[in-house]
Amino acid sequence: MLATLTGPSGIGKGFVTEYLLARFPQIQELIWTTTRLLRPTEKGKTNRLRVEAEEFLARRERERDDIRCTHQVHGHWYGLSSEQINRLNHAVFLTEAHVDNLGDVRRVVRSAPICAIALVTDDLQLLETRLRVHRKTKSDEEVGQRLAAATRELLYLCDHREAFDLVVGVSSANESQIATNIGDFLAHRIGGHHA
Q1: Nearest to 74 by CA among 17, 36, 119
Q2: Per-residue pLDDT tens digits for 2-33
Q3: In angstroms, rounded to a whole number, what is the distance separating the alpha carbons of residues 35 and 78?
Q4: 117-157 pLDDT per residue, tens
Q5: Whole-angstrom Cα distance, residue 30 to residue 93?
Q6: What is the average pLDDT value for the chain, to the nearest integer?
Q7: Is the alpha carbon torsion for 13, 16, 18, 20 positive or negative?
Q8: pLDDT value for 63
Q9: Cα–chain-centroid distance for residue 153?
Q10: Three-state DSSP class for 22?
Q11: Distances, alpha carbon 127 to alpha carbons 41, 70, 156, in Å
Q12: At what angle do helices 13-23 and 178-190 cross, to 10 degrees?
């Protein structure tokens, strides 16, 4: 089984991921290959493999589809290697899937059931605070770009709610319970899947 978390920058996907990995030791995280520099909080973790853009694009063009599910977010490439996709038959996995790439993930990942979870909010101030304070996004321009992208992504997610197994509204009032609620939802789905 593959559980996907989809939502805009700053919504809390990373926090939920950390919680779920701690709560469910049988869950493994998919490793995305990316051209984005790793954030300080990602150093030493294994969910991102950073490569230069030239290597990424060359691997994407290989005949054997070495990197699939490719997409660009905020100027950086992301993709799943064929090796990662093939691992899905053997365990329960968790990953973040960008809204623009979720359809591609569904098309490529045919060997495992997918449980798609969307995180949404109508509080852009919450996202801005998280981007500035927690993520330490450096410039006003970058924050503005991410909030504009978040607005587009949230509209898409709300218009396509039926494509998700669970849609969770995030607000400052309920943010401390979000990870627990998602964990409770996944507990029933994970039951029949073993690592």
Answers
A1: 36
A2: 999 999 989 999 899 999 999 999 998 888 88
A3: 7
A4: 999 999 999 999 998 887 766 689 989 998 999 999 999 99
A5: 6
A6: 86
A7: negative
A8: 57
A9: 13
A10: helix
A11: 18, 25, 17
A12: 50
What are the structural domains of the chain? 2-190 (3.40.50.300)
Joined tokens for residue 86: 């093939």
pLDDT at residue 46 greater than cutoff 80: no
C-alpha 170/C-alpha 174 separation (Å) is 6
User: CA separation (Å) from 145 to 24, 110, 128, 137, 150?
Assistant: 35, 34, 11, 11, 8
195: pLDDT strictly greater than 70 = no
pTM reported for the whole predicted model: 0.83
pLDDT digits (tens, 9 = 90+) for 87-103: 777 788 888 888 887 88
Q: Please give the span between the terminal C-alpha atoms of the chain, in angstroms, as a whole number.
A: 10
Measured CA to CA, the distance from residue 90 to residue 58 in angstroms comes to 28
Identify each DSSP E strand in the chain by its residue range.
2-6, 27-29, 32-34, 48-50, 67-73, 76-81, 92-96, 114-120, 166-169
CA distance 52 to 141: 24
Q: What phi and psi, each to the nearest 5 degrees, are found at residue 104? A: -65, -40
Give start and end residues of each alpha helix (H) in 69-139. Answer: 82-87, 102-108, 124-129
